[in-house]
Amino acid sequence: MPFAQRNEQGQIIALFFEPNTHAQEEIAASHEDVLAFLSSGQFDDTETKAYLSQTDYDMIRVVEDVIDLMINKNLILLTDLPSAAQHKLIARKRLRAKFLLEDTLLIEDDNIL
Question: Could you tell me the superkingdom of the organism this chain comes from (predicted)?
Answer without folding.
Answer: Bacteria
